[in-house]
UniProtKB/TrEMBL annotation:
GO molecular function: ATP binding; UDP-N-acetylmuramoylalanine-D-glutamate ligase activity
Organism placement in taxonomy: Bacteria, Pseudomonadati, Bacteroidota, Cytophagia, Cytophagales
Catalysed reaction equations from the record: UDP-N-acetyl-alpha-D-muramoyl-L-alanine + D-glutamate + ATP = UDP-N-acetyl-alpha-D-muramoyl-L-alanyl-D-glutamate + ADP + phosphate + H(+)
Protein name as annotated: UDP-N-acetylmuramoylalanine--D-glutamate ligase
Residues forming coiled coils: none
GO biological process: cell division; cell wall organization; peptidoglycan biosynthetic process; regulation of cell shape
A Pfam family this chain is assigned to: Mur_ligase_M
Name of the top EC class for this enzyme: ligase
Similarity section: Belongs to the MurCDEF family.
Gene that produces this protein: murD
Species this chain originates from: Dyadobacter luteus
Domain Mur ligase central: 109-288
InterPro entries on file: Mur-like_cat_sf (IPR036565), Mur_ligase_C (IPR004101), Mur_ligase_C_dom_sf (IPR036615), Mur_ligase_cen (IPR013221), MurD (IPR005762)
Keywords: ATP-binding, Cell cycle, Cell division, Cell shape, Cell wall biogenesis/degradation, Cytoplasm, Ligase, Nucleotide-binding, Peptidoglycan synthesis
Length: 448
């Protein structure tokens, strides 16, 4: 008898969603999580009579699987995954599994930075145009869960490299690649090429009728395109030059050239700022145009977009000083774009858990724009040593309220106080959201 046992590794949003979809498709489902499953997910499994375990992985219940759906957080090098691979048991991501059971058109968005903003903006453009569209992937509700219980015509998917590592037939109708900069290299044998290959999996199964939207100014992407055969229709995005098919920034204008139809949008009028967000906006606009959304509806929807928190989020203006929460900037590349988003003098709050950062990328911008650096971290030496000859004033703190008060003392009307850490948050905070929320609270305390 052929086994139809589906094993899910990981009992979070994506894992439980995959279990629900698997059950609906007739699989014998077993879910296993090495940690403790949250109560809301545990209750879903109990209510649906899906077998599961947590705080352990019982190999005898896992290694007889016909198919395994693995959480993106579990590396391929973990002993359990290695044992499954040795038995030639197929291992896929939730993204791959869900895509097998939907006829909806898929817009998949990846990149080292900007994925969430671009995904949310693309979803907003589709939703405002009246499309029957779902939001999933690395954001929102589980893709598999939605495929099991909803009936969308389109899905806008934020896709991480970890999710792309375990695809087989996943084929987006529109693939978006925003940028590739060093990140998560510990998962890729400290090989940037391995990480790059993972990102390019997003176009691996595309065909001639599909579309590939990419940032043409990226040297990494340009080099890969020269060495790869990609059959899909290519739409380039550029901040510096005209493109034959795609979209460019020309002065203050975003100008698209798609199917001989020109669309122009004044960029400063949009609610998102900075050159990186111009790239994000152009990618979203092109994805909407490919889906047939009218230019007038795109233009209207762009003006009503609200970005996710912690991404160049304006918190307050106090005595003429603007406070910006960019806690999501957990790598140097993100800080580069953040600094480039402002012409005003900046008091920068940075620091946290350094992931092997190379600060030379932002040295010139810091020298030109940053009047003071507040290092918010338990380990300040690397940042201090790098910037003490570059920045006029440095203050070291392990308390966000103290950090914000010091920034306020240095700032004058017309300045920006910018939290853009370049580092992970785990030395002083639970995560980047916690760091951003504590920063917003500290800024609020200045008003009282």
């Amino acid at each position: 008898m052929v086994s139809n046992k589906l094993v899910i590794l990981g009992g979070g949003e994506s894992g439980v969603g995959a279990a629900i979809l698997g059950q609906s498709k007739g699989y014998d489902v077993f879910l296993s999580d090495g940690g403790k499953i949250q109560e809301k997910y545990r209750q879903e499994l109990v209510d649906r009579n899906i077998s599961f375990e947590d705080e352990q992985h019982t190999q005898s219940l896992i290694l007889d699987a016909a198919l395994v759906v693995k959480s993106p957080g579990i590396p391929d090098t973990s002993p359990l995954v290695v044992a499954l691979a040795e038995r030639n048991i197929p291992i896929v991501s939730e993204i791959e599994f869900a895509s097998r059971y939907t006829d909806a058109k898929l817009v998949a968005i990846t990149g080292s930075n900007g994925k969430t903003t671009t995904t949310l903006l693309t979803y907003h453009l589709f939703k405002q145009a009246g499309y029957n569209v779902g939001l999933a992937g690395n954001i929102g509700e589980s893709f598999a869960w939605q495929v099991a219980e909803k009936n969308f015509d389109y899905y806008i998917l934020e896709i991480s490299s970890f999710q792309l590592d375990n695809i087989d037939s996943f084929r987006p109708d529109v693939a978006v690649l925003l940028n590739i900069t060093p990140d998560h290299l510990d998962r890729y044998g400290y090989s940037f090429q391995n990480y790059t290959d993972s990102k390019f999996n997003i176009v691996r199964n595309q065909k001639a009728e599909d579309h590939f939207i990419y940032f043409e100014d990226s040297e990494v992407i340009a080099k890969e395109l020269a060495d790869r055969i990609i059959p899909s229709q290519k739409l380039a995005v550029s901040l510096t030059h005209a493109v034959a098919h795609g979209m460019r920034l020309n002065g203050d204008e975003l100008i698209s050239n798609y199917k001989n139809s020109t669309f122009t949008q004044n960029y400063p009028a949009l609610p998102i700022k900075g050159p990186h967000n111009a790239v994000n906006a152009m990618a979203a606009i092109l994805a909407a145009q490919v889906a047939g959304i009218e230019n007038s509806k795109i233009a209207e929807a762009l003006l009503t977009f609200e970005n996710a928190p912690h991404r160049l989020e304006k918190v307050a203006e106090i005595a003429g000083v603007t406070y910006i929460n960019d806690s999501k900037a957990t790598n140097v590349d993100s800080v580069f774009y953040a600094l480039g988003s402002f012409s005003e003098p900046i008091v920068l709050i940075a620091g946290g858990v350094d992931k092997g950062n190379d600060y030379s990328q932002i040295e010139e911008l810091v020298k030109a724009k940053v009047k003071g650096l507040v290092i918010l971290s338990t380990k300040h030496e690397k940042l201090k040593d790098y910037f003490e000859e570059i920045v006029p004033r440095i203050h070291i703190s392990q308390d966000v309220n103290d950090a914000v008060r010091q920034a306020q003392q240095w700032a004058v009307s017309g300045d920006i106080v910018l939290l853009s850490p370049a580092c992970a948050s785990f030395d002083l905070f639970r995560n980047y959201e916690d760091r951003g929320n504590k920063f917003k609270e500290a800024v609020g305390n200045l008003i009282q």
